[in-house]
Amino acid sequence: MKLKIAVLAGDGIGPEVTAQAIKTLEAIAEVYDHEFEFESAPVGAVAIDETGNPLPEETLDLCEASDAVLFGAIGDPKYDNDPSAKVRPEQGLLRLRKGLGLFTNIRPIKAYETLIDKSPLKREIIEGTDFTIYRELTGGIYFGEKQLSKDGKEASDLCSYSEKEIERIAHLAFKAARNRKKKLTLVDKANVLETSRLWRKVVTAIGKSYKDVSLDFLFVDNAAMQIILNPSQFDVILTENMFGDIISDEGSVIGGSIGLLASASVGDKSALFEPIHGSYPQAKGKDIANPIASILSAAMLLEHFGLHDEADLIDQAVERALEIGMVTQDLDKDSTYGTRKVGEFIADYI
Amino acid sequence: MKLKIAVLAGDGIGPEVTAQAIKTLEAIAEVYDHEFEFESAPVGAVAIDETGNPLPEETLDLCEASDAVLFGAIGDPKYDNDPSAKVRPEQGLLRLRKGLGLFTNIRPIKAYETLIDKSPLKREIIEGTDFTIYRELTGGIYFGEKQLSKDGKEASDLCSYSEKEIERIAHLAFKAARNRKKKLTLVDKANVLETSRLWRKVVTAIGKSYKDVSLDFLFVDNAAMQIILNPSQFDVILTENMFGDIISDEGSVIGGSIGLLASASVGDKSALFEPIHGSYPQAKGKDIANPIASILSAAMLLEHFGLHDEADLIDQAVERALEIGMVTQDLDKDSTYGTRKVGEFIADYI
Ligand SMILES: CC(C)[C@H](C(=O)O)[C@@H](O)C(=O)O
Ligand SMILES: CC(C)[C@H](C(=O)O)[C@@H](O)C(=O)O
């Protein structure tokens, strides 16, 4: 297969971990005789520093002209504590999602047996946990009108959703559930929000065409409890943008390491793959960042194009690295292996 | 002291647990020679069934004419799965908060040594946890304009905040931090929301008058992780309405039992005290509900009126009940004690 992959390594540890994902994809290309072409472009704080724009037009153009985007991380503390800053790195990511129409963010959450004791949660709570969050990514309060009154004393954000926006992601979520444990949980706040009531109505209606999937509802406050009280009850969780942001970061704690979690953001035409950890600026350039989440994002990329064996091989290589302790310090504080070393091991294994 | 207390027992297990809180307050009144007058009024599903209105006018009038409100619980499953229902029990609670101007919800979160092993989190994670959440309760997306388009295909909810709404709760939160570990954490989503940026600006400005309190910021998605990764880092958390709803329910899991957690909702003129557990309809009338959260809400009520010794005595009685295993089945599945028995023990101890 021939794939053109846009590489948006971004800020902080983004470039170092993405380099390992590329190394992995190159190994896969060699073994399976694929042709992967990589082209890089700036995004985030790096792009602001270079061009004044967190998502330069050429970057968006490159993504549109590519089959997929491999994304690193975004964010730099120098922009964080200035809420009045007109340009912020995160805008690059938000515009990219919107520009590419990436309306669904998919985050698998799994308890790895080898890491189960690293979780803040007890073993008996998390054993058997294996669910996926489908988070709506281009609507809701993230993209609704924002207002600040002239005198700066009143601010507002509008959360809005249309039937269509809900339908398209709901179909993806139901299909995913159909291929898994056949259970879909809609997380909302229908006892308070009008948008949530629309979600409930639309998702219930769509559920009628997926009779083999059982559908239930959970208020978001209750979901925030259930995810740590009894995470193995979930199969596919479907939710709107802001709730998904919170719930999926909460869920990322279960497995014991955020350094292992990958995500896919998909739309009708484009797809973007990124580790869920952020730019972790303190670790930048130190060769200590865990590259596995980025490598597993590459596996999700392959899976997305139907390259199941290739994706499986990466998963195997990762499991092997975990088993023999070929990991960075976040997983084993006595480890002497760095970002590059772990990436090399995985590429060599392949 | 003479206090007139409105009793809004509400739905599900509300009435049974509130009865134990009243018993406790009566014991306190006897020992300390106070005069507490109780008067009941309907709210929630019970009120809808009786009057068609989840917050009848007489109920609101009674609350306004009282020194404090003792609240039970609200919500009935028969209203939950009908998102289009025009009248819902929760509206009673929301209107009550708004009507009484209860702009701050205060929720202490503590790991009780005797219950620490009941937590889904590991002992070493939660040991030493003792923080309080200050949640804004009468603004934000809960009360902003809600719209549903004529064709029912578009819905929206407006989140808005004014400087004033933020200031009044921020002062309460800073004062609380000053009397505790002198650390305030503002939880927001300032990298995305205009309202969050206003929160950051206003809270930062107010922080200048509380130089002894250190102020830091956490994005809500990160906060959802930190609360389970390292809960003992927190002292006072300040946040807006919806984030507070999610974060405080998440935090309620830490201690190992939601049956112990009380809350206060305060405004300039009124104050309401309620257990944070919901109406738990499955347990209604079975004498199995844990009355301690309601009893501790009564202690918060006394504390609110400066009756520290009285509140301390209730805390002691509760600790004693926990120590000797005079608890309901949620805390000890082999226990044969019911709601009433635990309430009687605590009242007798006093
Ligand atoms: C960086 C930020 C804008 C982003 C979001 O809130 O969507 C991040 O938290 C995420 O979840 O990808
Ligand atoms: C019942 C519901 C409207 C309420 C809320 O969301 O505020 C509840 O969850 C709470 O936290 O008190």
What structural category do the secondary elements of chain A indicate? alpha/beta
Fraction of residues in β-strands of chain A: 15-25%
**For the CA atoms, what is the radius of gyration of chain A?**
20 Å
Mean pLDDT of chain A: 95
| H and E string of chain A | EHEHHEHHEHEEEHEHEHEHEEHHH
Q: Biggest interface in this structure?
A: A-B, 62 and 62 residues
Low-confidence stretches of chain A: none
Shape of chain A: globular
The CATH class designation of the largest domain in chain A is Alpha Beta
Q: Oligomerization state of this entry?
A: homodimer
The CATH architecture of the largest domain in chain A would be 3-Layer(aba) Sandwich
Largest sheet of chain A: 10 strands, mixed
Heterogens: 3-isopropylmalic acid
Provide the helix percentage of chain A. Answer: 40-55%
The end-to-end span of chain A amounts to: 18 Å
Strand order of the largest sheet of chain A: 2-1-3-12-11-4-5-10-8-9
How many runs of DSSP E, i.e. beta strands of chain A? 12
Count structural domains of chain A.
Answer: 2
How would you describe this structure to a colleague?
2 copies of one chain form a homodimer. Chain A is α/β, with parallel strands linked by helices and about 350 residues long. Chain A has 2 domains: about 1-100 and about 270-350, Isopropylmalate Dehydrogenase (3-Layer(aba) Sandwich); about 105-265, 3-Layer(aba) Sandwich (Isopropylmalate Dehydrogenase), CATH 3.40.718. Chain A contains 13 helices and 12 strands. The first copy, chain A, has a 10-stranded mixed sheet with strand order 2-1-3-12-11-4-5-10-8-9, with helices on both faces. A two-stranded antiparallel ribbon of chain A has the order 6-7. In chain A, strand 1, helix 1 and strand 2 (about 35-40) form a beta-alpha-beta unit. The mean pLDDT of chain A is about 95. Strand 7 of chain A pairs antiparallel with strand 7 of chain B, so a sheet runs across the interface. Bound molecules: 3-isopropylmalic acid (2 copies). One 3-isopropylmalic acid sits at the interface of chains B and A.
